[in-house]
Amino acid sequence: MQTNTVSSKDLAVIILARNEKLHIGRAIQSVRNVSSEIYVIDSFSTDGTVEIARQAGAVVVQHEFVNYAKQFQWALDNLPIKSSWIMRLDADEVIEPDLANEIRAKLLNLPSGVTGINLKRKHIFLGRWIKFGGRYPLILLRIWRWGEGRIEDRWMDEHIIIKKGDTVTLNGGFSDHNLNDLTFFTDKHNKYATREAIDVLNQRLCFLGGDNRMLAGNSPRQAVRKRAIKERIYNKIPFQLSALLYFGYRYVCQFGFLDGKEGLIYHLLQGFWYRFLVGAKIFELEAQIKHLHRPEEIRAELSRLTGLKL
Q: How far, in Å, CA of 54 to CA of 180, rounded?
């Protein structure tokens, strides 16, 4: 049973991790002064992540990973959380000191009708803050009252949904700063592309359960708008054209070229190559399952083809 009494450190932080030795200590340290509980849900790391997290003061719980949404919802359903507020933090993200101070000051004074807090995330790529191309700020709901939020059951681009109430947006620094190299970046996005392809195919063929719908109205407007454009317009355009148009819009119309050489690499990889790869994987997978009609047959074949536990 959760109480309604809120202190400046009445906040539980949940971090999912697998082989995050480069980042996990930094992430934990960034929330130490705002949190009363820090949980790391580890997917059986082999690189020392667990030891680093425990030494940094986090409670480490190990659980088999299926996808981010299921892992995070498992944490919400099973952790012995005592705090009144929850924060979702990725292992490669950092709460900067000004945002930490803002959280400590404002949690004390939020009215009971406020159940969610949005943060403005910035992306650091090859050591450079990517400010243009529509990449800053990314408004994400990352803090919510215990019991009022759940995570969308999706394979990619999952958001926290709150049941009711209002949200506020804080302005302090919140950064996504992965320290791995471009080989890691491209490998990660290749895996992301497979997961996103599954979500798009599920939207078309309905072979999975989960949240095959739009975000709720109390989600950040930016996220709701982006999801609507992607699902109602972008995903219906042939990928050969949509990826190119999206990159051009980001790089020219949204001034991505002002992000310099690092920005060119980032926008080309994340704004064109990745989007093209998602489309190509949808095309490939659709061709391989076109002879199937029953949802369970489609699910089983896509699981075999992708290696995902659908």
A: 22
Q: Convert the pLDDT of each residue in 199-256 to its tens digit.
A: 999 999 999 975 555 566 678 888 888 888 888 999 999 999 999 999 999 999 999 9
Instruction: Give the C-alpha separation, 172 to 226, whole Å.
Output: 23
Q: What is the pLDDT of residue 65?
A: 96
Q: How many CA atoms lie within 13 A of 95 on its CB side?
A: 26
Res 8: pLDDT: 53
Going by the DSSP 8-state scheme, the letter that residue 245 receives in this structure is: H
Cα atoms found within 13 Å of the Cα of residue 257, Cβ hemisphere only: 5
With H, G, I as helix, E, B as strand and everything else as coil, classify residue 122: strand
DSSP E strand boundaries for 68-183: 85-90, 93-95, 114-125, 128-130, 138-145, 149-151, 160-162, 166-169, 174-177
Question: 200 with 234: CB under 8 angstroms?
Answer: no
**Percent of the chain whose predicted confidence (pLDDT) is above 90:** 89
Which sign does the torsion angle of CA 12, 75, 212, 301 carry? positive
C-alpha span between 203 and 223 (Å, rounded)? 18
* 128 touches 62 (CB < 8 A): no
Provide the CA 19 distance to its chain's centre, in angstroms.
Answer: 17
| Cα separation, 201 vs 283, whole angstroms | 10
Q: Is the dihedral of CA 299, 88, 229, 216 positive or negative?
A: positive
Whether pTM exceeds 0.85: yes
Q: Which residues pair with 13 in a beta bridge?
A: 38, 87
- Domains along the chain? 1-92 (3.90.550.10), 182-306 (no CATH)
Q: pLDDT tens, 250-297?
A: 999 999 999 999 999 999 999 999 999 999 999 999 999 999 999 999
φ, ψ for residue 154, nearest 5 deg = -130, 165
Tell me the mean pLDDT in the region 184-192.
98
